[in-house]
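Input chain follows. Return structure tokens only.
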Amino acid sequence: MKKANWEIKKLSEVVDFQRGLTYSKNDEVDFSDNIVLRSNNVDLKTNSLDFDDLRYISNKIEIPESKKVTKGSIIVCTANGSKSHLGKVALIDDDYGYAFGGFMGLLKPKVTLNSNFLFYAMTSDAYKKFIGALSDGANINNLKFSDLGNFEITVPPLPEQQRIVSVLDESFTNISKAKDNAEQNLKNAKELFESYLHSIFTNKENNWEEKTLGEVCEDLFAGGDVDKNNMSRTKTDVFSIPIFTNGEKNKGLYGYTNIARVTKPSITISARGTIGYSEIREEAFYPAVRLIVVIPRLDVIILPFLKYVISGMGFIHSGSSIPQLTVPMVKDYPVNLPPLEQQQVIVKKLDELSNETKKLEAIYEKKLKDLEELKKSILQKAFNGEL
């Protein structure tokens, strides 16, 4: 409930609005003193400035001071090809002297409004819902200030605004630290499993044999290599590997889901490298062109062990803009192969650790979600006078 001395104002009543600088493509240069902030310079997730990709325009262009960001102002995206970026904001925390582009706007709080208080109001759920309602169900990829200015903001007296900002700053700093810790713990949990998986296949015992993947497979071929007149193959168990990688060193099997498909039946491959396999009972399958199909020799390697071998594979790519696996690369991949009985023991250990890792991941992912909900709750309390 709004306190007695709090007012509800429209955004247009408490800020001055300025549209961004318009310029032609011919004005752009590789480097100059004239820097222009655009939509990509506002991080959608963190509502902070991102200076990784700056745009420069010729020094011949004289930029009016009104088209430059100033400390304490709020930059807002007013046009974008993606509706999710419409209305995103960032607080200008210094006098950078940068211009802001034509698809951006600048909000300058009037003397009755604390700029940090305004920033928090424009990162709240209420603001996001307001922006969503403006473009919901319509082909609208730009915001007019005549519409944006209708956003209602609860405005307490200036000293109360400053007190609220102080409390929010401290609370969000603590939440940010907690999120960083949770994200690090989540990363550690994933790396722990990967480290153990790597150690299993690099620290071989005396009774292990050194093989290649091709030697432990009955067949290994790329979808595009199969004769079109004989595309269907009938096998009990198969694996599939996407041939494209995400370009990371030693991450050869992290493929894209949209190219990792077979027609019948489905073989699932997640975008982060979890490779599923199908037990196909007397059914034909049609390997997609961008898959490498692996049919193991079940007399020397059990399927769960092969799954871990494949998920732990890594390749170093060089000289290719799009790293790509080939059949010879996969066939020649070294495999330290223990006896079948020992494979079962190793798989049991890996399964147990994998399950525990998934439990830890679920805990930390929930914590991250809870922290984000806490942040929303605190903001809501702040603007309801309940903080």
